[in-house]
Automatic annotation (TrEMBL):
Function: May play a role in anterograde transport of membrane proteins from the endoplasmic reticulum to the Golgi.
Full protein name: Endoplasmic reticulum transmembrane protein
Compartment list: Endoplasmic reticulum membrane
Coiled coil in keyword set: yes
Residues spanning the membrane: 6-23, 43-63, 107-130
Membrane topology label: Multi-pass membrane protein
Recorded GO CC terms: endoplasmic reticulum membrane
Family annotation (InterPro entries): BAP29/BAP31, BAP29/BAP31_N, Bap31/Bap29_C
Species, as recorded: Cerrena zonata
GO BP terms: endoplasmic reticulum to Golgi vesicle-mediated transport; intracellular protein transport; protein localization to endoplasmic reticulum exit site
Alphabetically ordered keywords of this record: Coiled coil, Endoplasmic reticulum, ER-Golgi transport, Membrane, Protein transport, Transmembrane, Transmembrane helix, Transport
Length: 207
């Protein structure tokens, strides 16, 4: 794997770790301070700006990998239709290796971009959940001192609905986290099996 795809894989791994931290069942006080730090820290803002630039390059790699995958697939189809290199085991292995590596690079960069969108959306959903919980706790405290007015009762009901919807979305992202981990394990297993089966393929096919 070339340097830029290795860096992309490390970025994907860091995204998965960050995603696990975001959806982890932290106590409310710790989660509140953690997300406040992420949303208000200037250092985090600079890092986020750098990551946006990085994802532009990842998007370029994704387009290039997608074009390579289409080209390799088209070459394999043409070879099968014309009957050339059908009996050449080495050529078939090279075609299979090129197709595998092009697909691997496409999935790697594509999932990296997809997870960046999921992380951004998850962060703002949880941040909105924390703000809603704060408003609900403050309103509940104010109404506890006196009998609530009809407007306050309606506002409390709306905040309860927002809390339920946000918590449901958080649970959905926890399910997505488990599925992402399972997909990563399956990807590693398939890559290991393929490398064992095509151990005679040269490294120049890996870019």
């Amino acid at each position: 794997m070339t340097v830029y795809y290795t860096l992309t894989f490390l970025l994907l791994a860091s995204e998965m770790v960050t995603f696990c931290l975001l959806v982890s069942p932290l106590p409310y006080g710790i989660r509140k301070r953690f997300f406040r730090f992420l949303s208000e820290s200037p250092i985090v803002a600079k890092v986020a700006y750098g990551l946006k630039i990085t994802f532009i390059f990842v998007a370029i790699l994704f387009i290039d990998a997608l074009q390579r995958m289409w080209r390799v697939t088209a070459e394999a189809d043409i070879a099968r239709q014309t009957g050339s290199n059908v009996n050449n085991v080495q050529s078939e292995t090279n075609f299979a290796a090129r197709k595998f590596y092009s697909q691997r690079n496409t999935y790697l960069t594509g999932f990296c971009l997809f997870l960046s969108l999921v992380l951004t959306r998850t962060f703002y959903i949880i941040l909105d959940l924390i703000h809603t919980q704060e408003e609900y706790a403050k309103l509940k405290q104010d109404t506890g001192k006196s009998s609530p007015s009809p407007d306050q009762t309606k506002q409390i009901a709306e905040l309860k609905k927002k809390l339920e919807a946000a918590e449901a979305k958080t649970r959905d992202y926890e399910i997505l986290k488990k599925q992402a981990a399972q997909n990563q394990v399956e990807y590693d297993r398939l890559a290991t099996e393929f490398n064992k089966a095509s151990g005679n393929v040269s490294d120049k096919r890996k870019d």
